[in-house]
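To: structure subgroup
Subject: Chain for Friday's discussion

All,

I'm putting the inputs and outputs inline so they're searchable in the archive.
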Amino acid sequence: MKVVTIATDLEHPFLRRLLAPSCDAVGLDLVVLQADQKGFRPRDKRAVLTDYLARRAAPDELVMFTDAYDTLFIRGEDYIRKMYAELSRGVIFSAEPNSWPLGHIGLALQKDPPVRPYPYLNSGGFIGLAGDILALCAKYPDPPSEHFPLLRHLRTHDYDTDKKFDISDQYYWTLVQLLEPDTVGLDNGAILFENFAPAVANFCDLPRWTTDYRARGKQAASYRREYARLQSRLRSPSGAAQIHFAASLTKTVALDLLDEGQLPSWLVGGLRQ
């Protein structure tokens, strides 16, 4: 089994101080694929990953993808394999409380009621056999928006979700999962992946939610609010293997807590800081 991540900055503090040491601490084999920083977009992760899987992974090798700059691991391969088998889908994605990036349009695409506490796909962590991941990417070389009547209808009104959201690999994988529910599952109960981002009523408004932080830094109300929320959440250990501080302000607070020595031992007990 390999844990694979993609990074344009090998010295990023989260990668260097949290993700890589956490994999060492729990005995996971981390593969860091370096991508060219110039012009790199989140959707490009798919091309980098599929190139690696096609050239360097056997079809039956278990691969766990993780974002590089906002994740860490607290459990190792034995636990991951056991939980992966229990989730009973070939490819399992992390899940989160927010419908991002599609927002309310994403809610309208859902066929079934939300499965709490984490109803919506998050592409910052997923696991499956290399051959299964490659097969999905080959079947859907582009975001399969044409399969969704709502998205086709919006396009006739000059609202093209491909153009608006194609920069995000999460847009692509959300559509694929909705089309392939028997193959692609979500970790709605956070037994493998837990997303620590805040739940936001309209996630598309999140940039405005943190505008004051860009202006006032740690004195901003949004920073103080997220600092308190994350400290409160971290009092209870997670049962997952991967922890994801998915929102930008959440990641910032996590790094500040690390610098202050305030991250709990259950999260960083084995790390060489």
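Points worth raising on Friday:
The first helix runs from residue 13 to 26.
Residues 127 and 186 are 10 Å apart (CA to CA).

D.
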